[in-house]
Amino acid sequence: MATTYEIINKTTLGSDAAYIEFTSIPDTYKDVILVGSTRTTKTSINDEAELKLNGTAITGIRLFGTGAGVACDTIPIMLPTGANATSNTFDNFTIYIPNYASTTQYKSVSIDQTGENNGTTAYAVFIAGLYSSNTAVSTIRLTSLTGSYVTNSSFYLYGIKNS
Amino acid sequence: MAATYEPIATTTLTGTQANIEFTSISGAYTDFILTGTVVRTAGSDIEFVLGNGSYDTGSNYSLTYLYGTGSAAGSGRGINATKGNAGYASSTNPMSLTIQAQNYSNTSTYKTLLVRNSPASGDVSAIVNLWRSTSAINQIKLTPNSGSFGAGTSLTLYGIKAA
Q1: pLDDT tens digits for range B82-111
Q2: Contacts of A70 in chain B (CB under 8 A)
Q3: Pick from B118, B129, B96, B122: which is nearest to B43 by CA?
Q4: Which of B68, B94, B117 minimises the CB distance to A107?
């Protein structure tokens, strides 16, 4: 039987990087999912990270909790763990894009991210994103908006087949 | 090696349809995931019923939900409901939806389903549903409570094996 869940590409950083990008994503899967574990050099508990598909930033809604409160806004920016979080702690995230290769509809993006670090503040984030284009997604870029992703940050892009 | 994550069935709509159902779901898996893109013809909740041979429409569903509207965050509960809930969206843009059921085919425990839905317009939400039945789930039917599913809706049911 054909493999349902296949690795398309992966990277684990050996040095700091401002962004990671997956290009030339084949259109042969039903959905794609990007999972990873990150930390950045920003001197804060958290940084901010932007997702772009085919060079365009997604729009959408963000719901997040800090352990002390919950908030919601229309800024679909991820909150990766920053340099002031407990040492050696990295966040983890999932970016799910169903029907990413469609040429007849916009693309919905679902992002879950958590950055527990046994400190006084941590973020749990849910993002509902939209890529308002009928173009198939062939490039995915994640950019740390202030710092850089540190060594050992990892990113795995999987394709999911439905037959 | 036996496949762990297997597609069971896919429904892709080329026109509107009042509901989507998956029946005769094999009990050969440990968990299942129903996931994909949903397009609606109107802003609405998506509700679902479960069953084994016939759908349970009794007051045997309950849920707890966390949501964000883009300007406000909230949480709530519902008990003794006649349907489960897979989230709300106010627009007709595509929305990613994932419904996950662990141990769905066992005949000893009630069934818990985890829902994540990510409409870029509407409520990004995380929902836990409980179906108070020890019956194995072998059918699920989803229905918008207003309007219909629209063209471009594509949902795949995957089975996950633990061994």
Answers
A1: 999 999 877 788 999 999 999 999 999 999
A2: 66, 73, 75
A3: B122
A4: B94
